[in-house]
Amino acid sequence: MKSLSLxxxxxxxxxxxxxxxxxxxxxxxxxxxxxxxxLCTTTFNIxxxxxxxxxxxxxxxxxxxxxxxxxxxxxxxxxxxxxxxxRVQAALDIMREMRERGGIAPNQYTYGTxxxxxxxxxxxxxxxxxxxxxxxxxxxxxxxxxxxxLIGGYCDQGKLDxxxxxxxxxxxxxxxxxxxxxNLLVHALFMDGRGTExxxxxxxxxxxxxxxxxxxxxxxxxxHCKEGNVKKALEIFENMSRRGxxxxxxxxxxxxxxxxxxxxxxxxxxxxxxxVRRGIRPDLVLYNALINSHSTSGNIDRAFEIMGEMEKKRIxxxxxxxxxxxxGLCLLxxxxxxRKLIDEMTERGIQPDLxxxxxxxxxxxMKGDVKDAxxxxxxxxxxxxxxxxxxxxxxxxxxxxxxxxxDAENMVKEMVENGITxxxxxxxxxxxxxxxxxxxxxxxxxxxxxxxxxx
Length: 455
Hints:
By secondary structure, the protein is mainly α.
């Protein structure tokens, strides 16, 4: 712009200013300022959007307060910037400033942004306060996006009945439910084990002329996969394809995990290959699902091969990858090899987690190698992880397997003292262990009696 001799309008530069990445956009903005081009509200709004996109809402607020004529878009841009960073209280303060200092009434976008912001950080009660304030003032009519935020927030908190109550209020006010509304409730109902009600909502959705989208189908497929009903999940998958809804990486991941639980390894391979043929780029989660399929089926060498293929595509393994491989090795009794993977994880900057240690403890316990299992338990505690129900159950199982019933009983006492309630698995292992111990004692008595009779 420094060499330009022809006059140029500010408005003609707005598309370029908006399309540029932040750094060159600010360079252009500086040139415009240096050349004394008239900067209007739209110019500033574009720069505010750049600042917020760069994660600098505080700088955006400073610029807003220097503007001669901010408008609703100006305030909404900055409010959205703070909400995207989780700073919703600051966004709410700016909404108040918008009215008191700017003389601009918050609109539907303003309220929707703040309400959604509170819900995203888990403070649904604060979102309700803003929503109720909006209704009381009567300046803005509620929209589906606001109700969806509240419904989603309550679903995330496990308050499904309250979410359904807001659905009812939404309908009473004449606000039409959207596909997103249905998806939120269908997912929550499935997670709550209320599959029949979830399907009733899907039918209602179709009756209102709303077509299920890919999220709807993924929710249904994932719900059935979690129930272990793979047949139904595959039927929905086929129906999805017939209706022209393109499956995503999420779809294939859910199906592969579900099929691997059934030991249908060939089917998981076919699904993975189909996903690739359909142009889906496998991500880490999908690769982990396929690795899990081969690991749990005992084909651990193929599982390691898949990790190698994944890395060739520059997808780095994570803790889930390693934990899955460790579990596969432990199932084959190759616990020492699994133990070595911790060193490999650490070298790659992947920190072992509670699942890692519990997997090893379970592996050693299954072999009856309680000494090494306890050593891993101590190592885990030194790393700041407290034993869980799974930890204790594995150790108790190992002790019982070794005929150390008294030690197993002491382990139960320890877990109770640490605030962990034993479950069915705990008591079954303990009973089996004590029974085995009694049987051994009887066998020993019989052998002793037989030896005495010979004498």
